[in-house]
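I am still getting used to backbone structure tokens and would like to learn alongside you. Label the sequence line and the structure token line clearly, so we can match residues to local backbone shapes. Would you write everything just below, so we can both look at the same thing?
***
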Amino acid sequence: MICRILLLISLNCVCGTFVVNVTQTSYQAEENHNITLEWTFTTTADTPTDSLYIFCEMKTDHKVSVVFHLSGGVEISESQDQQFVGRVQWDKDVLRDGRLRLHVSRLRTEDSGRYRCKVWRNNILNSSDCWLSVSAARDQPEPERPDTDSPERFNTVSWGMIVLYCVPVLTAAVAVGLFVRKVYC
């Protein structure tokens, strides 16, 4: 047993430590929005990207879905679960820097779950998890309608109100004018 522990420690010292981390452990988003999930892993300048094997999956209580699969530096889109087809993109240019960025578009509530990314490099495997919670889209707010019972209604002047008050006043003025003309002329 002690020999195994010493062998494991010596392998880590010779090969270096290989660690996979998430940049954020928990994400929250709304349905139909987009999100970027990001993992980092230790890399060296002499590690070619074609020596990387990456497998990302989404787990819920009911199922496991393949989100992303990279084998020997080549994306294997055939293994991707139908739920994610056409909605997951990745940044190829940051992979050599030890970063995996997955852009998930048009989020759905069923995208909620635990996302695990497993990375193999030089026959060493490590992984890290993050959680995504997607809430249902809020209903669009209804456009505001004027409140006819509000006091501001009386402060607004409309042509209908002007006509309603002016016509009887003008009619009375004409009637008085005709009466005065008839009496005094």
